[in-house]
Please model this.
Amino acid sequence: MLLQNTFKKKESDQKSDGLSEFTKLTFCGGVSSVTGANFLLEINKDQGTKKLLVDCGMEQGSDKAKIYNASPFIFDPKDIDILLVTHAHMDHIGLIPKLVKHGFKGVIYSTPETRDLCVYMLEDALKLITEDAKRRHIDPLYSPDDTRHAFDLWKTIPYHQDFTLFSDLGVTVYLKDPGHVLGASMFEIRIELNKKLRKFLFTGDLGNSPSPILKDTEPIEGVDYVIMESVYGDRNHEDRETRLQKLQQSIEDTIDRQGVLLIPSFSLEKTQEILYEMNKLFEDKIVPEIPVYLDSPLASKLIPIYKKYIKDYNEEAKKRKQKGDDILNFKNLHIVASAEESKSILHSKNPKIIMAGSGMSTGGRIQHHELSYLPAHNTILLFLGFQALGTLGREIYDGAKVVNIYDTEVHINCEIRKIDGYSGHKDSDHLQEFAATAGESLKKVFVTMGESKSALFLVQRLRDYYDIDAVHPEQGESVILY
Ligand SMILES: [Zn+2]
Model:
């Protein structure tokens, strides 16, 4: 059973003689699992001790995830001095209000972009958590007050600035862009230990550069220890050049079949990237204009934040914007607001495109569209992102012919397609290349945030192909690092 506080506690490395200053890194969550990122770095120096947490994410997918999310943290939230947040996806932020509820009184830091996005992401999460608790007759994980209080503690740090975290211990952080979602950051934590500067790099999620909108992942030369993701550690994506053609083909086939192109879409980043790509296809007259329904209130709320931070776009996206193109909007785009409007899409004429959340079909408006359109032969269901074990999306992705939605047996007669090229995560080859950018200084890579099969494959590749000391830690495991 996945419980936060019952994992075997193991300390891999023992404290060396004569070295009084050290750090202890504990893998509290996000190990052998894509979701639930949560890492604790304890800094022990002659001047004192501080505890720093990186991400406080929710496990997503299976029933086991619910048990994990509800069980106590393996540390005492009251003892944590600082929480660093890599980016605004739920599997990195979903338990922040729970941390506050259980006594965290420190400071939360992220980029300004991430903080802005989290306002809507956590508001949406609160709604889902409250509804779920009501349905299951249990207490919700946290209250609106806990969420509000989290933002009282939340400050921001821009990219590319040396920022002091603990002045008494001389600990600083430097934020780099992983190119994953708007505002995402890698944290390079700089600590002097036993008179030597050590750099700990927490990757968060690593973008599948080149992204349609965002800048490329920055290299990480000069770091000592890397704690990195491995969602696609054992697989490569298709050629990135072909992803737009595949999207184009799916739209053209939908027009030929007079059908529906149904896209379960993640509200943050994926939706905005697909809107950007569709904007290009329609406005450059590559495909005929057919109605596109954006049926995700959360994704719609995030669009203005994308428009606020044009500085984070890559050169091509900036250029389109400078030419006056409203890059996330086009004539045939319908932003669906109310639930009634959402239901009325069923009566609108084919062909049409429906993008709706949630991205793994675990809830949200996509489910009622799936109920209506999965049985139809002229529907194309298009997967654009990772589907976690235990989700409806994964069941369909793995080839189920019949699924259950709202207690109704739904037969899947439609065509299922996927485009991995729009994944927000690096594939195996690019994860390896990324780790190698650390260069000679690199002492160890901890491969986390991926299912075990994927993480272990990446560990082996890093060892065999790059001669990098890589390990896949266990959940709850601690290591002492100098
Ligand atoms: Zn992410």
User: Anything to note?
Assistant: The longest strand covers residues 22-29. Confidence is low (pLDDT under 50) at residues 5-9.
